[in-house]
Design goal:
single chain, alpha/beta, Rossmann fold, 2 domains, seven-stranded parallel sheet, six-stranded parallel sheet, 17 helices, 15 strands, globular, binds uridine-5'-diphosphate-xylopyranose, quercetin 7-O-glucosyltransferase activity, UDP_glucos_trans, Glucosyltransferase, quercetin 3-O-glucosyltransferase activity
């Protein structure tokens, strides 16, 4: 395609791993359709992505990796989500305006967690598609937040005022509303709630809401959204940047090849979940007790205070039955025939990736939308089981052992997961609902 006619789109993820990955997946799809993509990371994440990118020459021609500062100082923690939410708009807005003007960009695909960017439609006249990194249900819940406050279920600081089940799709307890359990301090929680209420008012500026989901799975939630287009499940690119912040350990794939079909527990808690030392030990002992082989992702910042010696001793105990690595190619792992189930924090990407590969879940949510995703898995699709805490708030080794056995012995759960996988695969095949929606998006973005 001649450069002059090549449709050009800016993609703007929130600077966190679970946001960069799906927007990168969507970008690869658009590049395949002939688009030129300017993918704008923060400088901090941009550097990380390039550091871990195994084949730096594999970036497809249409994909341009750009970066701008995030507004934090050199001594600040650039992974502090709460802080980033506060500083990004002021740091980025005018830089984005300049970039859009100088490159004559007509379209931006902005992450829903960057909804403040919708103002760019007013200031530089760019057209904006919003991308939801969470489920359509959570997007609908977000739009319903003023009503929950009006009804007295929550107040404007995120305090729960009436303990009840929020009967949207899927049902969750009021304390599990994502913006209520997000934020390490009262002040941050108040900021998050206020931020959602404020940016909700900009939603009319979005020409379309793209969701990494599919119609057959979230029919009810999607019906609540007038302008939503489900294009998922998005699939990881075979080559080029996936947006990983950590290098993938590919040895896990050869290890999986040596395991029996349907035997391995895959254990991974996304990019930001943190376990305290005692919970970490309980999990380690629970996995050992389960008697099943397991592949466990332990990121460098997953827990504090575990020494190298501990890993050596633990490996002796599990006698090669368990493999611990710091980051894996998750979609390839989930598609491996040896995988029996996914012990997960239920981040939306992990949830939809597990659905795409027909894997039953052991649910262990940490924060934000993950409780809602757990409710989908356990109460609606019925393809998962919840790991329950004891009175001290600990998921014990016994609970882990029992639930692993229960899940692996449950044929109905596996059958439902396989059926959901079939529907997911159909939706992204030629003629499927998500495939058709992707073409609708492509046609819209071609209006340059
Ligand atoms: C968070 C929220 O949990 C999620 O619901 C929200 O929509 C985005 O931000 P995160 O905690 O990172 O995300 O979890 P998740 O949404 O599951 O995303 C993690 C991503 O990292 C997935 O795409 C997963 O495939 C990938 N991953 C994880 C790897 O590639 N390798 C690993 O070893 C672990």
């Amino acid at each position: 395609m001649a450069a002059a006619t090549q449709p050009h789109v800016m993609v703007l993820p929130f600077p966190a791993q679970g946001h960069v990955i799906p927007l990168m997946e969507l970008s690869h799809r658009l590049v395949e359709k002939g688009f030129k993509i300017d993918f704008v990371n923060t400088e901090f994440n941009h550097d990380h992505i390039f550091k871990v990118l195994a084949d730096k020459g594999a970036i497809p021609g249409g994909l341009h990796m750009l970066s701008i500062p995030d507004g934090l100082g050199p001594a600040d923690d650039h992974t502090d989500i709460g802080k980033l939410v506060q500083v990004l708009p002021a740091a980025m807005f005018s830089l984005l305006e300049k970039m859009i003007r100088s490159k004559k960009i007509k379209w931006v695909i902005a992450d829903v967690s960057m909804s403040w960017a919708l103002e760019l439609a007013n200031t530089v006249g760019v057209r904006i598609v919003l991308f939801s990194t969470y489920s359509a249900a959570v997007f609908a819940l977000r739009m319903n937040l003023p009503k929950l406050i009006e009804d007295g279920v929550l107040d404007e600081t995120g305090d729960v005022k009436r303990h009840e089940m929020v009967q949207l799709m899927p049902p969750i307890d009021a304390t599990e509303v994502p913006w209520v359990n997000l934020g390490s301090t009262q002040e941050r929680r108040r900021f998050n709630i206020q931020n959602v209420l404020k940016t909700n008012q900009l939603m009319a500026l979005a020409e379309m809401i793209i969701c990494n989901t599919f119609r057959e799975m979230e029919f009810e939630a999607l019906a609540r959204l007038s302008n939503a287009l489900p294009v998922g499940p998005l699939v990881a690119p075979a080559s080029g940047p996936k947006g990983n912040f950590l290098p993938e350990d590919l040895t896990c794939l050869t290890w999986l090849d040596t395991q029996a079909p349907g035997s391995v527990i895959y254990v991974a808690f996304g990019s930001s979940t943190i376990f305290d030392v005692s919970q970490f030990h309980e999990l380690a002992n629970g996995l050992a007790l389960s008697g099943q082989p397991f592949l466990w992702v332990v990121r460098p910042n997953f827990t504090n205070g575990i020494q190298e010696d501990w890993f050596k001793a633990y490996n002796d105990i599990v006698e090669g039955k368990g493999l611990i690595v710091s980051w894996v190619p998750q979609q390839r792992v989930l598609s491996h025939p040896s995988i029996a189930c996914f012990m997960s924090h239920c981040g939306w990407n992990s949830t939809i990736e597990g659905v795409l590969h027909g894997v039953p879940f052991l649910c262990w949510p940490y924060f934000s939308d993950q409780f809602c995703n757990q409710s989908y898995l356990c109460n609606v699709w019925k393809t998962g089981m919840k790991l329950c805490q004891d009175k001290r708030g600990v998921v014990t080794r016994k609970e882990i052992k029992n639930k692993v056995a229960q899940l692996l012995g449950d044929k109905d759960i596996k059958e439902r997961a396989v059926r959901l996988k079939a529907a997911a695969c159909e939706s992204i095949q030629e003629g499927g609902s998500s495939h058709q929606n992707l073409l609708k998006l492509v046609n819209l973005l071609r209006e340059q």
